[in-house]
Amino acid sequence: MSKLWGGRFTKKTDQLVEEYTASILFDKELAEEDIQGSLAHVTMLGKCGILPAADVKTIQDGLKQVLERIRRGEAEFSVSDEDIHMNIEKQLIDLVGPVGGKLHTGRSRNDQVATDMHLYLRRRVVEFVGLLTSLQEALLEQAKNNIDTIIPGYTHLQRAQPILFAHHLMAYVSMFQRDIERLQDSYKRINALPLGAGALAGTTFPIDRHFVAAELGFDRVYENSLDAVSDRDFIVEFLSGAALIMTHLSRFCEELVLWSSTEFAFVELDDAFCTGSSIMPQKKNPDVAELVRGKTGRVYGNLIGLLTVLKSLPLAYNKDMQEDKEGMFDTVKTLQGALQLFAPMVATMKVNRGRMRQAVNNDFSNATDIADYLVGKGLPFRQAHEVIGKTVLYCIQNDKYLLDLKLDEFLQFSELFDEHIYEVLQPENVVNARNVYGGTAAPQVKDAIARAEASNEQA
Ligand code: ARG
């Protein structure tokens, strides 16, 4: 079978070169987008009088048939046709005859592949915004069900101050909100049309790029033809947005793994989201959380991989850029897998409120509040800190918690203490004392939930 670009060549391509340079084994993923772009292109060729209406019709019908065949899984792709663009063009020509060869008028694979990638990522970004929103909804549900569940809040993974479990979950809602906004922002740059840039310099045919942009739903066309065919920033942006999503998911995963350990036992993940051990009958492992945490590595790798491919590339298109695809497809798949599982895993997670309460009752996470209490009595904060430090040390040495101390014992450390401290030290009061915008007090968390729900409804 002859090559679409065979005219200038006198020798057959080396078999290994053919395999090495081909991208069809992975870029067949772009078949739908490639045909979508070609349909818009050929429609424009007709509208601009570059191709006669009859040819346009033949090519359009042919492309649709090729698409149907691909969808039915009947299309055969061949490595000797190198990539999805030439495979499809070849199939079109086989189907409709030489007139199919008119499709590529005024176009290059360079602006074609860039267009395919824009179409492909545009769809994914919309899909990921939807998946992130579902995950937020699962978190919001759990937050609403746990509006009075208190857990120790941690810094350095040491108990710090008690917080509402709902407040903790809402932190993730905020992180995923930023992820959504990042994706939405990147959409502006994804939604631009490269087609019409030709190989690098534009085309001699009187094409109408704005018509193609409108046909494909792009907001604008690339300003500069060199930039249009050599820009892969939009993929880097997607990969970096994906890397941050995975960062957030992996932090959550780490907490789920910890929380579901016997040591914490704060939550129990549903059986449907865990797996067992082939040797230890008692085991129930949080594999999904671990694997999402682990797969974060490949998503980072794909980002660094593409940045490195693009670094130092001269303008405009270079074959190196074919390396933009596998990492992108892999990231899309990895992110889909993680997000699809995460929302139901969170939704079905059982919260062990008794255990959380027990943890809060048996710690010193209310220590800041009696320091603040002494400050309220006029003691400078530094001195109050010192007094409470000593009080805590006394407790540790005597195997007690602050609420176990008698007033007499408190008074050994400062004369400013009185009966009110027992109220101040109650975890509910400690939590509700932090009644600042964005703080953990129940009214603030309820407001935060309401705001998040309202913004999700709007979107
Ligand atoms: N398969 C190629 C890629 O993905 C398509 C563009 C090829 N262009 C070229 N001039 N060889 O980058």
Q: Remind me, CATH topology of the largest domain?
A: Fumarase C, Chain A, domain 2
Which cofactors or ions or other ligands sit in this model? arginine
Largest sheet: 2 strands, antiparallel
**What share of residues are in beta strands?**
under 5%
Classification by helices and strands: mainly alpha
Specify the CATH class of the largest domain.
Mainly Alpha
Number of strands: 6
Spatial order of the strands in the main sheet? 1-2
Shape: elongated
| Number of H- or I-type helical stretches | 19
The chain-level mean pLDDT equals 96
User: Which CATH-level-2 architecture of the largest domain?
Assistant: Up-down Bundle
Count of separate structural domains: 3
Poorly predicted ranges (pLDDT <50, ≥5 residues)?
none
Question: Which percent bin holds the helix content?
Answer: 55-70%
Instruction: Evaluate the radius of gyration.
Output: 30 Å
**Element pattern in H and E:** HHHHHHEEHEHEHHEHHEHHHHHHH
Distance between the termini: 52 Å
User: Mind telling me the CATH superfamily name of the largest domain?
Assistant: Fumarase/aspartase (Central domain)
